[in-house]
Amino acid sequence: MWKLVLAYDGTDYHGWQVQPDHITIQGELRDAIARITGETVLPQGSGRTDAGVHTLGQVASFALAAPIPEANLVRALNRALPAAIRVLSAERMPQDFHARHSALGKTYEYRIFRGEICPPWLARYVFAMPAPLDLTAMQQAAARVCGEHDFTSFTATDPDREQEESGAAANNVRRLLLSEWRQEGELLMYRVQGNGFLHHMVRNLVGTFLEVGRGNVTEGQITEILKARNRTQAGPTAPARGLFLVQVDY
Q1: Residue ranges of domains in the chain, CATH in brackets
Q2: What's this model's pTM, rounded to 2 decimal places?
Q3: What average pLDDT does range 14-21 have in this prediction?
Q4: Which residues are catalytic?
Q5: Given a cut of 90, is residue 163 above it in pLDDT?
């Protein structure tokens, strides 16, 4: 079993998962592997990143019959893949390794540009928002979602997940180990680490924390929103372009 670590600019892709009539990361990787090895495999990702979401450390797994040295596979894939997708490393793993099922946790980062004029070379990778924000209140709000909670209020309907669970009650309980904001120059960044994330969960958390920053929601209401287990109680979904999957832990 192979384990790849990838970075990609998701701007021009319709997310990770293969879809009819859309260019996706999984599809591009599948095609590149086929051109190099002649083998048809569908790489499994650690998760399905949405259209426009970027990664610094997505993980994919797949089996190959061809005996290719690790460094050679990295070089060959990077020659075959578009410039927006890079393979950072490749290593052989035990046969039972699976990019998604073996994952113990993930870290995401959301980036907001706070300056008046967003440089064009950053525009694809940040949510530009120069409006005044109460950063102290946002930090306090972020701290309230640490620990184990039911995050139903912060998830979007995921038809693929519902189909996989075959009618079973959805388990929306997740444990967050880190949830914090930090400012670096004109960039305001939200970093969150947890044992798993629901569909649109990080973007919905960010959208809600921004409502706290604007003064439309109090930081104390975050606990009430969690307890409500109702998506309509939380804030809007932040744009995909500011979100990065930073790393996957095993």
Answers
A1: 2-92 (3.30.70.580), 105-249 (3.30.70.660)
A2: 0.91
A3: 93
A4: 50
A5: no
- How does pLDDT run across 111-156, given as a tens digit for each residue? 999 999 999 999 999 999 999 999 999 999 999 999 999 999 999 8
Q: 3-state SS of the chain?
A: CEEEEEEECCCCCCCCCCCCCCCCHHHHHHHHHHHHHCCCCCCEECCCCCCCCEEEEEEEEECCCCCCCHHHHHHHHHHHCCCCEEEEEEEECCCCCCCCCCCCEEEEEEEEECCCCCCCCCCCCCEECCCCCCHHHHHHHHHCCCEEEECHHHCCCCHHHHHHCCCCCCCCEEEEEEEEEEEECCEEEEEEEECCCCCCHHHHHHHHHHHHHHCCCCCCHHHHHHHHCCHHHCCCCCCHHHEEEEEEEC
